[in-house]
Task: inverse folding
């Protein structure tokens, strides 16, 4: 695994829009946060473009992302938001210069495609809030922890237990992100080797039978059986449809993972929730689950 250095005041960071355009001006407040951290913020030329539901044409979004990846002076890349569109351009991205000048890429939701693709290339990435939602109510702790990791390379988080949790301790890299996105990455170059990894999943706005179908896909594809642990984040606004399942999202996931003996943490504070805690992806972390708490620990070497 490649090592990416911590940020320091004065570093340049890039703002890009590889998926959908911002829905409000909240992202501008997010940029001010980055500036308050002492960073020099540089916006890509097409970051506010629109092309139907996308933040510009595929070529425009690709051009901006490629510029940010190539530029040696850029030390981190912050997509404004997710939405949809990263998977349309990922196969055209050239990571050869990025390999010479690796940098943190920070995001979640549709950015799962980029985060997982980097992990498949043996680079770490950060599943974490983006400028569009830096200042949402209830996100202060997550934002502070994101800053702490980016600048200090350390982060420890303890969360309460959950009735569905499976106890244990494991040290392994985390892969994953948004469940809907990662299921569509199965069989592509963007899906990292799942063997001996901790799979993180979260989602928003999915019907419960959709969640069930995606968990069946993870099981039938052999991915669940190769894992050494799981972290289940927020499943926001996932409700029954006319085709009912009879369980909530956590109950569905617990059913499909009950035959595996690895540690599983449910209701972990990450995903499409205000308290979207940062997760280091693709680099070894320590996960401890017992009757009193869930503890996640990682240090950037």
Result:
């Amino acid at each position: 695994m490649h090592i990416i250095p911590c940020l320091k005041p004065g570093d340049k960071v890039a703002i890009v829009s590889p998926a959908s355009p911002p829905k409000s001006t909240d992202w501008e407040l997010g940029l001010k946060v980055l500036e308050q951290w002492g960073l020099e913020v540089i916006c890509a030329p097409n970051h506010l473009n629109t092309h139907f539901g996308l933040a510009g044409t595929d070529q425009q979004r690709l051009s901006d992302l490629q510029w940010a990846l190539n530029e040696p002076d850029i030390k981190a890349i912050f997509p404004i938001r997710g939405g949809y569109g990263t998977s349309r351009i990922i196969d055209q991205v050239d990571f050869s210069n990025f390999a010479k000048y690796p940098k943190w890429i920070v995001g979640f939701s549709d950015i799962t495609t980029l985060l997982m693709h980097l992990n498949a290339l043996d680079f770490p990435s950060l599943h974490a809030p983006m400028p569009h939602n830096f200042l949402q109510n209830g996100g202060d702790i997550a934002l502070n922890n994101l800053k702490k990791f980016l600048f200090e390379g350390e982060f420890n988080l303890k969360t309460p237990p959950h009735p569905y949790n499976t106890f244990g301790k494991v040290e392994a890299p985390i892969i994953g992100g948004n469940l809907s996105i990662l299921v569509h990455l199965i069989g592509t170059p963007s899906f990292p080797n799942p063997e001996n990894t901790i799979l993180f999943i979260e989602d928003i706005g999915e019907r419960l039978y959709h969640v069930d179908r995606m968990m069946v896909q993870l099981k039938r594809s052999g991915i669940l059986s190769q894992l050494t642990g799981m972290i289940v984040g927020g499943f926001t606004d996932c409700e029954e449809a006319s085709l009912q399942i009879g369980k909530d999202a956590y109950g569905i996931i617990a059913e499909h993972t009950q035959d595996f003996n690895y540690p599983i943490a449910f209701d972990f504070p990450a995903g499409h929730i205000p308290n979207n805690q940062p997760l280091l992806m693709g680099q070894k972390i320590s996960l401890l689950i017992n009757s009193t708490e869930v503890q996640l620990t990682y240090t950037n070497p």
In short: The chain has ten helices and 13 strands. The domain at 12-153 is CATH 3.40.50.10740 (Rossmann fold).
